[in-house]
Amino acid sequence: MTKVRHVIGISGGKDSSALAVYLNQKYPGLPLEYYFCDTGKELDETYELIENIETRLGVSVQKLNSASKSSKNPFDYFHQLYGGFLPSSKARWCTKKLKLEPFESYVGNDPVISYVGIRGDEDREGYISKKSNIQSIFPFRKNIWSEDVIKLVLANNKIEIIAQYYNDLNLNGKKDRILEVVYSPLSLSHSQTEKLNTLLDLGVKEFNQVTFRFIKEFTEYPLSKVEEFPLVENEDIKVRDDIFALLRNSGVGVPKYYKEKAFEVNGKSGVYARSRSGCFFCFFQQKIEWVWLYEQHPNLFQKAMEYEKEGYSWIDNETLLELIKPERIEQIKEEYLVRVKKIKNKKSSYLVDILEDAEGEGCAACFI
Question: Which residues are bridge partners to 113 per DSSP?
Fold first, then answer.
């Protein structure tokens, strides 16, 4: 069989770091390669976390540098190349140049399984490579497969094949119900998501076995080139609390920028922290995080301000100089406390991190 590479990207955030711990502990037989795309603008805590992973897990994390032939660090090299144009949510050249391209160059044309740290309590897919030699797997989710795989497996023209695969399994008393679902075609009243969730509820391992067999017999995905895949037996679902537990119990530790810091505004008390890894000036930061950076790392905030030249700013319709005016900081903190209160008043059993809009880990969330 063709050798397939198994890789995991470490962004410096909690989810990818916890996935590295999880896979290292639960699947020690996987020949994992660990890599980190260095933007050159990370917090010191990120580099510290990478060192902790190497030490605690006994592995080596390959540091990828997209500007290795330049004397400049990666971000500054491409920032100059783009004529001082700052990246934004509408023009994410930093993601492409500092994350995606070095990753795809690193794996080349080898068949690759890329393990992605999206949790079981998140509703997003993350980056799916357009390259056919890279396949994403999501070990923390009930559904470990990517959207493109699910579309193939649950296509109406594959119903007979999938039914036969299930018939070949020992389904105990679930056989009739499973086949009933399999034979129900996708339609406006029966969505792919609904069908998928029902089949997963009826048996995660069974669905994984069927999907793996389908991949091997009908596709050219990297997993078609391996004889066995241990995650087929995976039934774990890891949510936010599990992530922090994995990091603490392993000794790797939680990235220090997640530690909440107290603040006061107009006689009210609150706490804030950074919610993501990635560049310290990441444009995905919420404004309370910019305030956190200004108050906790003023030297880094000053460096971020220096990039705002010639009409370019990190935030739409507001410069960092405007953001740090005392009255504006007060307003941001007040609005933040209102948001906190609203979420707490929902009294949900699971309190989502209020700083995380898409639970992303900076631009690294796009592909790892």
Answer: 6, 135
Q: The whole model's pTM is what?
A: 0.90
- What are the pLDDT digits (tens) for 157-194? 999 999 999 999 999 899 999 999 999 999 999 999 99
| Structural domains in the chain, sorted by start | 5-145+233-250 (3.40.50.620), 146-232 (no CATH), 257-358 (no CATH)
Q: Extract the tokens encoding 201.
A: 């509820």
Chain Cα centroid distance, residue 76: 25
Dist. CA 314–CA 336, nearest whole Å = 20
Beta carbons of 82 and 98 less than 8 angstroms apart: no
Phi, psi of 301 (to 5 degrees): -60, -40
Nearest 5°: the CA angle 322, 328, 330 is 150
pLDDT digits (tens, 9 = 90+) for 52-111: 999 999 999 999 999 888 888 999 999 999 999 999 888 899 999 999 999 999 999 999
CB of 274 closer than 8 Å to CB of 254: no
SS (H, E, C) 300-320: HHHHHHHCCCCCCCCECCECH
